[in-house]
From TrEMBL, chains B, D:
Part of the binding-protein-dependent transport system for D-xylose. Probably responsible for the translocation of the substrate across the membrane. Pfam families: BPD_transp_2. InterPro entries: ABC_transp_permease (IPR001851). It comes from the Bacteria. This is Xylose transport system permease protein XylH. Keywords: Cell inner membrane, Cell membrane, Membrane, Sugar transport, Transmembrane, Transmembrane helix, Transport. The lineage of its organism: Bacteria, Pseudomonadati, Myxococcota, Myxococcia, Myxococcales.
UniProtKB/TrEMBL annotation, chains C, E:
GO terms for molecular function: ATP binding; ATP hydrolysis activity. Residues 7-249 form the ABC transporter domain. InterPro entries: AAA+_ATPase (IPR003593), ABC_carbohydrate_import_ATPase (IPR050107), ABC_transporter-like_ATP-bd (IPR003439), P-loop_NTPase (IPR027417). This is ABC transporter ATP-binding protein. Keywords: ATP-binding, Nucleotide-binding. The lineage of its organism: Bacteria, Pseudomonadati, Myxococcota, Myxococcia, Myxococcales. PROSITE patterns: ABC_TRANSPORTER_2. Pfam families: ABC_tran (PF00005). It comes from Stigmatella aurantiaca (strain DW4/3-1).
Length: 347, 412, 262, 412, 262
């Protein structure tokens, strides 16, 4: 009986010093548009730019940790020399890191921190900070409107999602003790907008439609559901609603004033930083400069690149989203959003 | 009047137990049927009342007009999908793709309307047509290659989900703005119109029932006692009036409720009173016997799956109209399981040949009420899951227990 | 012989898995004739009936209807030719009521607007069903009972009545009286005679030789998947038929029949 | 030797078509059976070969030892759950709670082992016991209250998912460290041990087959031609040897594969060769006939559901051991649908009374290969969904078409 | 009369939904006696049999076995008392083979270690099954065919053979010969006589009065759910029995019987 006799059978030895090579990009889900429409293209473009002969192996785990494990194995079988892993589940991804270690393949923990494991680098936005940013924006807005003693509704993300927990913790650290009363708080299974809608409807019913001064929604999808619920219940004017991800639909709502804010995580720099790091590791170089922090993941201090999330409201859509090319003006300003665009000076 | 006509051709079988005349006879007949488990939807309705009572005690806003209107709006999409599932269950088959089809159809509609700028009506029709085409494809595939519907629609569940991701492409969520499409779930009719609709339904129903009675009498066929017809009508029409009274207290009669109610009613008429419906029951009861009777079993199956998927598409469109958006997770999650559970809780058999379109309405009300009530109480996620499971189990058990007498008496 | 036959089979064979159920069977029935199909259990009688009514495909051989070659590709085809069948396993829809089963596949639609959508005229159907069942002395509590709740004989009666709906040219009856009571059996035998008088071709399977002799014109005997003998009823003796069925010598059979007469 | 013994009591029926002696006769018999659709698992196996070939052409690492070993490890959990599903399907029932039960059981195990510090073995047993208790509860509930299994296990799907969230509480994911538990999926045996196991299996199998043959001969019963027994053995044992040869080229024979294989083998013996198994088939074929024969139908149902849920728990524990962690989404997602699909694709009927434990293995291989291969090709999500759906459909259709001859020949 | 009866029912009633299937029926059968249960279709004969074999519960009335009151709460109870039944709807498991069906519920386990786990001894079962079927002249291609693939008469034979397995004290046969061929019918009637000689109580339902007269000791006639007449076979005339069954006047019956004799 021998334990895990690993003959480095999967991974090609990193000693191979060709210019080309394989980098695996493993993303967690496809139900949120950011991964397929931003992370992946930006990452792939940057890799091509830095290393024309490199190949990117891309997989998406559709929110299933064991599927991601299979995909990791597939990538290693395929001869990936660097893993850029955005884990479905931050804690249980340790097994995949261990598997990569056996094949002597370095792992970059992308966007979400893989806890209790020997990862090489970490690139992300600070997720707890995202929650703080949302909470702060809501609180500031309510203060400005003089409603900072009112009742709010909190709609969190999926109860099975570890990130949702971080957003929740961040938001609570601001909102608790701020004088705002939490009238109702929900977790939203699967981050489902439909569920968020029903939860909001029930919150409106149980609290009364004039009582709610603000809504904390963890992302743009749930915000959309909450807004639809309030519209249907005849809540007018709509209270400020937070969001996250700067989805196209979210930005559009922000522009027409239905949603107060969204959190823009500039995915392009994040993806590009990951690409640069991955290519450097592929070539056996030690990346310098970019690393700006160390984050403890329970096992070690992981050298990290942390990027700042940005709070986006109607005022700064142009200077952030449009300026970065995250969404093009014509994408945002399609059809009925023309007027709103004009008033925000977006063409 | 309540005694069988004297003209009738066949002597009444002496073994047939007849209810005594008068109100007392009716009550005794009711008790007898109760003990034999012949209650139809009564147990589900009682279960629903218990659920409502419990939530009402926990939070008295549960039975407010606004919440009941919300409840109605919350169940229309799932209920419409469930009505399609009822059809498929009548055949003894299952449709696992209903959720995915609802999502894909809504995505197609959104794409055409928002991104490609087509009008509301063509987009809507295209959405429905997507559903119909998928259903026809499933039906043809399973009849042509004799693959069990379970497998075909399971493949569909995966495939159409992929297609939905593909259609929504990179942008992800699409907001709906078109007033017509949004209006599907967002329009409420004034009391005057609502009551007109009610009056129309009641008058037509009463008229047809009595015309039919007259015809049977003329043909010398035995008649159901008049009083039980009247009692039944008083209850159903009473429920209708009560519902509309509640709606008019809040925002008015929701168009979505009208659509859902209309779909269920039409479906019930279709399966209960037409050749096609009769053949559907026959195929569900004994497909081989139906085949030998010259019924084109394959054609029935294809039509049923087409109808069911079209209804799933309609449900998806209603959901999108209510959410004001379509996204990648539209139609996924528990949409499918809820729709199936609703049909089954409402009393449609999973084994084919037994059921009614009303079960979609009743079942959707039960499931919708549970989730509505628990959101009103804002319980934590884990508790919500557990309570939903428990209530489902108890509701189904009450129903099953009440049928027990019948099983003991029945053949199997 | 088969020149003026209404229906004929030529050299029909049928195999189920490893069992050769029919081997090169010829068969013919004329209009206005009652043919009894006799044979031991498993001789292939029901298989033959199912082939004629189009519910199982043949492996080889030809089928002729009114002298023309036809392909009996399904029950729909057979019933379009005017072939009505009572199956041994009855094949009723347990979840439908008696009226529903009697009219299955040929429901009455109401006149006018209802016709287009296939609206059922339940009153007319119930009336006709009641009349038909009364004619066949069938005693059931109500024509609205589900077939699942009927007794074995009642189910059999419904299946026989079903075959009489529509206007068939040829009726196939696979043990139609097996579960029937005295009165009902008599009615079915009378019915068969009436059908013959109306010029229909009737094929009846029965193990009851008394019934066979009382209604049939011709007896065809099958054994282990082959047609082994044909008798004209006027000339045939029961002993001969029994010996053809069991494959035993005639003398043995006479012996046993005598013993049983005791 | 291949001709029926002369001592036999009953003359051979002249209608029974017998294969001619010799190899030519065997081949003709094979062709005859092929045309009649009596092929058993052959179509699935051919389908699997086609899938493997396609993926191999697309990426030649697909058939590498390391990938095939990975494939095996990837399917063990789902396959074990699927084996339980096979049991339930044999009764003509369905178990929708298998995924949730697998998650909850793994969570209970993790909780006891990691958070409460119990030893590996007690924790493991507690996990399995959780599954067994849930299964027994489901079985008792459905037999006591006559609620359809679909509804009971649907309620379970929700309820136990809630319980899992509750058990994992606020911490969410629990990492596993215990070497015994991790070893379930992480242990590989050396070639010597692997070949010993193979030799044992082959010898025992051959011995029992020939002892049984001798007994039948002595009793004067007809014998299956020796050559077809031998051909069958050569194929199955060949597959076994090939599999082990592949494993030994990589990390060795995985313990998880041994566990999965053992479970399937035991199950097959249970359902095929014991009283309990016979009764299970009888209940699935005709529950009323089984009841009239004095079989305690309820007890069979409770036992089957208990076994199935225990197997689901075992699958959940294997999955946890492979992932080195349990989290809130363990057992959710497509675990359930994959397990059911595997059983069905492998050839177990959804309508009860027909199937075998091997179908869990074959079906899991088909489904696992598709997903493994597509991950290897690193296709995009939407394409993956669509291709999976399409492949499933085609695989099932080949199987169904090959059975078509049989259906045409069959009674229904 | 029922003092020395092996089995007796007293005032048994049974209602299905709105149909009163049995009204205060008394019934008794002695050891070593063959009782024939006759009656029109739907008279309630099968219902009575199902009550005795415990598969449907009674609404009111008592059941006595060997003079003691028993509660026939399920088929398990009835078979423990030694009651074996052939049902009219046969109740076979289509997916099992002939051997599996014959031994269902009383499978032979192999000796030794296998016994504990319930390992089946297929060889012994197949041997016994082959022998039994041969004794009953049942002709089936192989005892390993699935029951679904058998003809109607073959299925009926299997059901009858099933009831002979085990060692019953009382055998209930609901139309056991309905679908049987000439030879098989003769075997079953012989079998019934042998059972009587072995001292078993036998209840047989049949619409074939010739068979009834040839094997029964006593005839009990039911009509519309009530017991209406009892005959001793030695003294009874066919006309009387028929008139009791159909409820017609004796004269009418004689008339019709004469006509049919033609
Ligand atoms: N499960 C049931 N549900 C409702 N009614 C039933 C049920 N079983 C039998 N009946 C009714 O009870 C009556 C008696 O049926 P039973 O089967 O006992 O008749 P039978 O005497 O065996 O007739 P046959 O000679 O036709 O077999 C019939 O009218 C039948 O319709
Ligand atoms: N679907 C089937 N699959 C396999 N074998 C079949 C099938 N149907 C019939 N057989 C076999 O074909 C043979 C003839 O069956 P068939 O039903 O035609 O007999 P039958 O003459 O009607 O007998 P009975 O008098 O008992 O009704 C039987 O041996 C039977 O086992
Ligand atoms: Mg037959
Ligand atoms: Mg009967």
């Amino acid at each position: 009986k021998r334990e895990n006799k690993e003959a480095a059978a999967g991974g090609t030895p990193p000693a191979e010093k060709r210019s080309g090579g394989k980098i695996a990009l493993l993303l967690p889900e496809s139900k949120t548009s950011r991964y397929e429409s931003h992370d992946r293209p930006h990452f792939e473009r940057k890799v091509k730019e830095l290393c024309p002969d490199c190949e990117v192996i891309y997989s998406n785990a559709d929110q299933d940790a064991s599927k991601q494990q299979s995909q990791t194995e597939a990538a290693l079988t395929n001869g990936a020399q660097v893993l850029v892993l955005d884990p479905v589940d931050s804690a249980s991804a340790a097994a995949m890191v261990a598997r990569a270690r056996q094949s002597k393949v370095p792992v970059i923990s992308y966007d979400r921190l893989i806890t209790n494991s020997d990862v090489d680098y970490y690139i992300s936005f600070d997720n707890e900070k995202v929650g703080k940013l949302q909470g702060q924006a809501l609180l500031d807005k309510l203060k400005a409107d003089g409603k900072d003693k009112g009742t709010i509704v909190i709609i969190n993300g999926a109860p099975t999602d570890n990130n949702a927990k971080l957003f929740k913790a961040g938001a609570h650290s601001i909102l608790d003790g701020s004088g705002l009363v939490v009238g109702a708080e929900y977790d939203t299974p699967d981050w489902s907008p439909d569920k968020a809608q029903q939860q909001m409807e029930q919150a409106v019913t149980s609290l009364g439609k004039d009582k709610i001064v603000g809504v904390y929604a963890a992302n743009d999808g749930t915000a959309g559901g909450a807004i639809a619920a309030m519209k249907a219940a005849g809540v007018n004017p709509l209270p400020p609603v937070t969001g996250q991800d700067a989805e196209l639909a979210g930005i559009q709502r922000v522009l027409v004033g239905e949603q107060y804010m969204t959190v823009y995580k500039a995915i392009k720099p994040e993806a590009e930083a990951a690409a640069e790091l991955a290519v450097a590791l592929l070539r056996g170089q030690v990346p310098e400069g970019k690393v700006n922090a160390k984050v403890n993941n329970g096992q070690k201090d992981v050298p990290s690149i942390l990027l700042p999330p940005v709070s986006v409201t109607k005022e700064n859509v142009k200077s952030t989203i449009v300026a970065d090319g995250f969404w093009k003006a014509e994408e945002i300003c399609s059809g009925s959003y023309k007027d709103a665009c004009a008033s925000a000076q977006i063409q | 009047m309540s005694a069988p006509s004297t003209q009738q051709a066949m002597a009444v079988d002496p073994r047939l137990i007849q209810d005594a005349p008068g109100l007392k006879g009716a009550w005794q007949g009711f008790l007898r049927r109760l003990s034999q488990g012949e209650l139809g939807s009564l147990p589900v309705i009682i279960g629903l009342c218990v659920i409502w009572l419990i939530f009402y005690i926990a939070n008295d806003r549960f039975l407010s007009a606004v919440n009941l209107t919300n409840l109605m709006l919350q169940i229309t999409a799932m209920g419409t999908i469930s009505a399609g599932i009822v059809l498929v269950l009548l055949l003894g088959d299952i449709d696992l793709s209903a959720g995915a089809v609802s999502g894909l159809s809504a995505a197609v509609m959104a794409l055409l309307n928002v991104k490609m700028g087509y009008g509301a009506v063509p987009s809507l029709l295209a959405g429905l047509a997507t559903g119909a085409a998928i259903g026809a494809f499933h039906g043809l595939w399973m009849t042509r290659f004799r693959v069990p519907p379970f497998v075909v629609t399971l493949a569909g569940l995966l495939g159409w989900q992929g297609a939905q991701l593909f259609v929504l492409g990179n942008t992800g969520t699409v907001n709906l703005n078109d007033s017509f499409i949004i209006g599907l779930a967002g329009t409420f009719f004034e009391p005057a119109i609502a009551w007109l609709v009610v009056a129309l339904i009641v008058v037509v129903h009463v008229a047809t029932v009595f015309v039919e009675r007259r015809r049977r009498e003329a043909a010398g066929l035995p008649l159901v006692p008049l009083r039980s017809t009247v009692v039944r009508m008083v209850f159903t029409h009473g429920a209708l009036v009560a519902a509309v009274a509640v709606f008019t207290q809040d925002r008015g009669l929701p168009l979505a409720a009208l659509i859902f109610g209309g779909v269920v009613l039409l479906l019930e008429l279709l399966i209960r009173h037409t050749r096609f419906g009769r053949h559907t029951f026959a195929v569900g009861g004994n497909a081989e016997a139906a085949r030998r009777a010259g019924i084109r079993v394959d054609r029935i199956r294809v039509t049923i799956f087409t109808l069911a998927s079209t209804m799933a598409a309609a449900g998806g469109i209603l959901a999108a109209s209510r959410l004001l958006a379509v996204n990648q997770s539209s139609g996924s999650g528990d949409v499918l399981l809820n729709a199936i559970a609703a049909a089954v809780i409402g009393g449609t058999s999973l084994f084919g040949g037994r059921g009614s379109a009303w079960s979609a309405l009743l079942g959707a009300l039960v499931i919708g009420s549970i989730s509505n009530g628990m959101d009103l109480l804002a319980l934590s996620s884990s508790v919500k899951f557990m309570v939903t499971g428990a209530v489902l189990l108890v509701a189904a058990s009450i129903d099953a227990l009440s049928r027990r007498g019948r099983q003991a008496a029945g053949r199997a | 012989m088969s020149a003026n036959a209404l229906f004929a089979l030529k050299g029909v064979s049928k195999r189920f898995g490893a069992v050769q159920a029919l081997t090169k069977v010829d068969f013919e029935v004329k209009a206005g004739e009652v043919v009894a199909l006799c044979g031991d259990n498993g001789a292939g009688k029901s298989t033959l009936i199912k082939i004629i009514s189009g519910i199982i495909p043949i492996d080889e051989g030809d089928t002729l209807f009114e002298g023309r070659k036809v392909s009996l590709s399904g029950p729909k085809v057979a019933s379009a030719l005017g072939i009505a069948t009572v199956y041994q396993d009855l094949a009723l829809c347990d979840n439908l009521d008696v009226v529903g089963n009697l009219f299955l596949g040929r429901e009455q639609r109401s006149s006018g607007a209802g016709k287009a959508v296939g609206w059922l005229d339940e009153t007319v159907m119930e009336q006709q069903a009641t009349a038909l069942l009364q004619r066949l002395s069938v005693s059931i509590p109500s024509v609205r009972t589900q077939v699942a709740a009927l007794s074995g004989g009642q189910r059999q009666s419904i299946a026989v009545a079903r075959a009489m709906m529509g206007e068939p040219k040829m009726v196939l009856l696979d043990e139609p009286t097996a579960a029937l009571g005295v009165a009902q059996t008599r009615q079915v035998l009378d019915l068969i005679r009436r059908l013959r008088e109306q010029g229909l071709a009737v094929v009846v399977i029965s193990h009851n030789l008394m019934d066979v002799f009382s209604v049939a014109d011709r007896i065809i005997v099958m054994r282990l998947g082959k047609r082994v003998a044909t008798f004209d009823v006027k000339e045939a003796k029961e002993v001969e038929v029994v010996s053809a069925i069991t494959g035993a010598k005639k003398a043995e059979v006479t012996e046993t029949l005598k013993m049983e007469g005791a």
